[in-house]
Write a structure and sequence with these properties.
alpha/beta, binds iron/sulfur cluster
Amino acid sequence: MLDGVLAPAPHDISQADASPVQATATRSTCPYCGVGCGVIASPGAKDVVGDPAHPANFARLCSKGSALGETLGLDGRLLYPMRRQADGGLAQVNWDAALDEAAEGFRRVVDRHGPEAVAVYLSGQLLTEDYYVANKLMKGFIGSANVDTNSRLCMASTVAGHKRAFGADVVPGSYEDLDEADLIVLVGSNAAWCHPVLFQRIMRNKEERGAKLVVIDTRRTVTAESADLFLQIAPGGDQALFCSLLVYLDKFGALDADYIRQYTTGFESVLTAARNIAPSIEATAMSTQLREVDIAAFFELFARTTRTVTAFSQGVNQSAQGTDKVNAIINCHLATGRIGKPGASPFSLTGQPNAMGGREVGGLANSLAAHMGFDAGSVDRVRRFWNAPRMAKREGLKAVQMFDAIARGEIKALWVVGTNPSASLPNANAARAALAKLELFIVSDNVMSNDTINGGAHLLLPAQAWGEKSGTVTNSERRISRQRAFLPAPGETRPDWAIFSDVARRMGFAGFDFRSSADVFREHAALSAFENKGARAFNIGGLARLSDAEYDAFEPTQWPIHAGERIGRERLFAQGGFFSPDRRGKFIAPAKPGLATKLTEDFPLRLNTGRIRDQWHTMTRTGLSPRLARHLAEPFVELGASDAERFGVEHGGFARVATPYGDCVLRAVVTDRQPAGHIFAPIHWTDETAAHARIGALVAPFVDPFSGQPEAKATPAIVTPLRFARQGFFLSRKPMALPRDVWWTRVAVADGFGYRVASDLKDDDWAALIRAAAASDDVIELIDETRNLFSGAAFVDERAMLIWSLAPLSPSWDLALELFSLERLDRSERLSILSGRSGRQVEDDGPLVCSCFGVGQKKIEAAIAQGRRSTSDIGKAIRAGSNCGSCRPEIERLIKVSSAAGSSTNWTTTGQHA
Ligand code: SF4
């Protein structure tokens, strides 16, 4: 039996923060990346713009943030609690019944199988308050630390590296350091696409102060195009490079001996280990596949530049040696005393908007709460603070282990909150199959349907979405900001913290009587200061007594914020003050570099996975914006020309990408940016948005031994060419159900649904599919058997309800999109659908580059040909790049390409214009 039942189980529902429709503009925070930009939503959220007063962005937003206003509709939203029925369908239930079922289900599993048989899987998109209550319930009252988060896939190696080096998970620097550095080294970071507003800060520093930019990456990304020095390193080479740098710094007297002596331990043994890994620049060149001259240039620049920031991201973290890579970087900063000083620091760029907040409350299975661990003292301290009846006494299962335990039948009840592990976990097919074994499978989410929910979730709990919920998030520089509600909560949606509180109360636990997110935040802040006495870095005791009004008005602030303070500290560790038992920073010796997997004859390529500029994670929000969809509309695999030739894949054609874990069918994009033997595919498409493009299904599940983070960037793979008899598109007013033998991807378009398709379907089958979708007698159609073309449209009251075009090579849909947007089509416009020609001016602008102003590659190339040779000139002439700046690196690349005679690279296209 569960012990510690401290209160009768009440059956009322928490009175969560009301989310009124705001009559005035509301300051909040962008829900996407870890930059954590401030936004201002106008009344009714007609407009979302950058907040000039937010220190992360000073009014700037990237393309994703700028399109937030387009993504606020209720299509596809989960608005009421739903229960799975015997026939597999979902039926609405009331909140009381849903909460009782969740509480009784968890209690039943714990009573029968023990607390380790239940688990909660959270998201870096949740607010700190949501994370706090989930963690308190599981680790303090149910007695299981099986609470993990999709942040495990994103930055867990950095957490582990920070803890080993600093004794605490602390980012020592501040965004201002990117403005003040003389050298910025980006390692495994496509910041131009993944942290665009920070990248613009870096570029401003470069332009105005002359800072140098070194980019270290396996791919020549758009970020690399802007670098003064680009090191295209072999996968797994980062440790060797930074060990070699440490050896070089020692050899050429560039160390800060005073800092090493006063504030650190372990330098000598780590230097010895580094010499073993990278005895010379020659040896480093061999192991990293870099040129000696480039390595030497980087080392020389690093050695002589005191103000150096090394910023790193997923390319470092998503590795089976990610923690060692993080420490190899930190070693160089500790050795030069370049830490926590203006313009000088190692700097982890966090992926998700509140991965940091999740870390602060113990959202990871291997931490407890308020940055405490599972040592006996911490467990007892938290037990007393929470008055907790059943504390977890050891670490829980990390994400990949958690789903393995589900597959083995050891975890029997799972609650997934705001994330889609069936798409995003490595070996995602196995993760999805594991879900079928659960006795109780609860999902709290915003959407009715996703790959995880459709894997058989028994109970769906409708959560408030961004704009409706209220709480705090912490960005990459430790800055806590408010997310504020500016929309009414639709249907019966509720905040996640309130849902967890209600389930806890129904399980009979006291300590969950939170009335508001402010209540939760005050308790979280108080715990951070409880018996802290300077022992723990995370201390926001100064916020423990915020009034509701002060919480509402809270300005973005960096922690730590000690009791009696309201202003935090920008930087840490300039004069030591680490959080290890001896208060010293630790040098950590990395293991011998190596990848978790070997290439084979069957799988001779390395598959790298990552983000693209205009989409976020599984596209639940960004996938609603027609503007964002225009950048890279289809799931693709990018490969170099030599591999394309070797495997017979054509640019603009299709390729099957297979690994030992699964396969996908993707548009092939051939560029000069992928080194031979390496391919890249973006992570965003799921079974909701494409027929066969769930990249998580391809990724190897091997994890870092310290962080549990999977190696998502080097899975052995093979590509084979695929050809379809016809390709084309449908524009439909209604969602279409396409048969299994049609490859499709759904693309956001205004007032309807866009589908790019390809298939070997026979004519009769296409015709039947079109007849079913048209649902109208007013149809025009062209069947050109000579050219194998099929096009047409169906109308209701002169409005096009369905437009289609199918051909051996993918036809452009620009004209059709234009006609689809009209309320009525006259005769000549109808005919133009069939002819593909129109009197209307529809510019073929080429692949989209600038999302803000809808400017394509061809228009930019024309401006360059007319003599515009800088991004600002092009901005003045055709506006491209003059708003959010996310596309400026691509414009710069086009300028460079046009300057290089005979050079031709097709980067932005996904093939349909190839
Ligand atoms: Fe949002 Fe873009 Fe800012 Fe990231 S950089 S927080 S995605 S606006």
